[in-house]
Amino acid sequence: MALEWIVVAYAAGAEAMMLLLLTLPGSNPLRHGLLSVTKTLLKPFLSILPFCLLLLLDIFWKYETMPSCKTLNSCSPSENLRHQKSTVKSQRNALLIAAAVAFYWLLYSVTKLVDRVEQLQFQIKKSAKNE
């Protein structure tokens, strides 16, 4: 399962980098090229959403099937430590899933906004030439 988490982490990192570069002020030539790349990559990045849902179901399944220690002596200290590590790891992975989904939504919204701003700037230049 480690490979799946690496894929989600890299996708979230790529989304964050594109989001950061799109929102940097004063980088119009870079923004125009990055906008076309981002618009092209939005559909492949959409596959992250069902992938995150599958990983979230995996976390839920691990949580539901985790043995519980009802009394103090029912589990050994190593088992308690293993369960605590598993819980912390599941919480980290849930945050990673939330970050990947949030970055995708932000990237989609910002890409549409920047594209609309460029279209309006083009219309303004076009109407200024006609006058």
Automatic annotation (TrEMBL):
Pfam families, per database record: Bap31 (PF05529)
Q: How does it sit in the membrane?
A: Multi-pass membrane protein
UniProt-annotated location(s): Endoplasmic reticulum membrane; Membrane
Task: Identify the keywords attached in UniProt to this record, alphabetized.
Answer: Endoplasmic reticulum, ER-Golgi transport, Membrane, Protein transport, Transmembrane, Transmembrane helix, Transport
Q: Which domain of life is it from?
A: Eukaryota
Residue ranges annotated as transmembrane are 7-24, 44-61, 94-111
| Listed InterPro entries | BAP29/BAP31 (IPR008417), BAP29/BAP31_N (IPR040463)
The BAP29/BAP31 transmembrane domain covers which part of the protein?
1-125
Function according to Swiss-Prot or TrEMBL: May play a role in anterograde transport of membrane proteins from the endoplasmic reticulum to the Golgi.
Q: Which family does it belong to?
A: Belongs to the BCAP29/BCAP31 family.
Q: What is this protein called?
A: Endoplasmic reticulum transmembrane protein
The source organism is Salix suchowensis
